[in-house]
Every structure is written in C-alpha cells, then in structure tokens.
Automatic annotation (TrEMBL):
NCBIfam families per the UniProt record, alphabetical: PRK00203.1
Known role: Endonuclease that specifically degrades the RNA of RNA-DNA hybrids.
Protein's organism: Aeromicrobium wangtongii
Cofactor: how bound: Binds 1 Mg(2+) ion per subunit. May bind a second metal ion at a regulatory site, or after substrate binding.
Any one GO molecular function term: RNA-DNA hybrid ribonuclease activity
Similarity comment text for this entry: Belongs to the RNase H family.
PANTHER family referenced in this protein's UniProt entry, alphabetically: RIBONUCLEASE H1 (PTHR10642:SF26)
Keyword terms, alphabetized: Cytoplasm, Endonuclease, Hydrolase, Magnesium, Metal-binding, Nuclease
Taxonomic superkingdom: Bacteria
Pfam families xref list: RNase_H
Occurrences of domain RNase H type-1 (ranges): 6-148
Cofactor: Mg(2+)
UniProt subunit comment: Monomer.
Protein name (Swiss-Prot/TrEMBL): Ribonuclease H
C-alpha cells in the first residue's frame, strides 16, 4: 500500500468495562489516521455491564467519523468481534432473536453498531487485552477514566 492509501485508513482501538460487573462502567477509543490521533472516552455511573461498554466504544468511535472511510477496528472483546462479524446478520434475519428464539441482549447497541458499520468499510481485529499493544492499553486507560469521571471522581 502506498503512503496515500494507508493515510486513508482509520485505525481504531476500543475498550470498555465496569467495576463491578454489572456496575458503573466506562469506554475508551483511540482513532488514528495518518498523523492525526483522537482519544475518546465516556461512562455510565449507573449499573451497566462490561458487554454494553465494550459495544459502546466502537459505536462512539465509528459515529464520530465524519465521512465514510476504511476502518481497521481492534477490540479485545470476542463478544463484540464475533457478534458483528458472525451473529448479527442472523439475529437481524430472525427479528433480533437468537437461534434459541430468545431476544438478543443489548439489541439497542447491536443495531447502532451495525448502522455505524454500514457507513464504512470496517475490518475487525481481535487483540489480546493487557498484552502490551500500546493503543489497546491507552483505550483501557481511557475506559477507566470514563468510568471514574462518570462516577464523579
């Protein structure tokens, strides 16, 4: 790939979590395009879940993009990666029900994530959490910051 082509790819690392689970939570995202870097974070002071925060991070990052682009999205959540790359098409086909006919958990966020992905060309990557990947570590720190700010600390 040429320098121009790689500059057109937005690389995103996301993370989310809460303490305890369920409990107050936070999400973080690091967006890079060429030399540009944007850090984002937020949180929920009420009772949320790790999965909801893991889903919120890529939603917020993708929704922040102002035009359709190619995205390489890195998450340490197999739930998010598997959900968006393998399960969501079937859930949508089945009226947002699982294979066992149960309502899909976090359907509001899955629908938002799918809509956000539909605007872009998104390639999903799983990264092992806390394994020294700099932007994943930063996303984790931002998620913690988002949770603490949401709790008023």
């Amino acid at each position: 790939m040429s320098q121009t082509e790689t500059a057109e790819i937005v690389v995103i690392h996301t993370d989310g979590g809460c303490t305890p689970n369920p409990g107050p939570g936070g999400w973080g995202a690091v967006l890079r395009m060429g030399q540009h870097v944007r850090e984002m974070f937020g949180g929920d002071p009420e009772s949320t879940t790790n999965n909801r925060m893991e889903l919120t991070a890529p939603i917020m990052a993708l929704e922040a993009l102002t035009r359709p682009v190619t995205v390489h999205l890195h998450t340490d959540s197999t739930y998010v990666r598997s959900g968006i790359t393998q399960w969501v098409a079937g859930w949508e086909r089945n009226g947002w029900r699982t294979a066992s006919k149960q309502p899909v958990k976090n359907v509001d966020l899955w629908q938002r994530l799918k809509a956000a992905c539909d605007r872009h060309e998104v390639e999903w990557f799983w990264v092992k959490g806390h394994s020294g990947v700099a932007d994943n570590e930063l996303a984790d720190q931002l998620a913690t910051k988002g949770m603490l700010e949401a709790m008023g600390r």
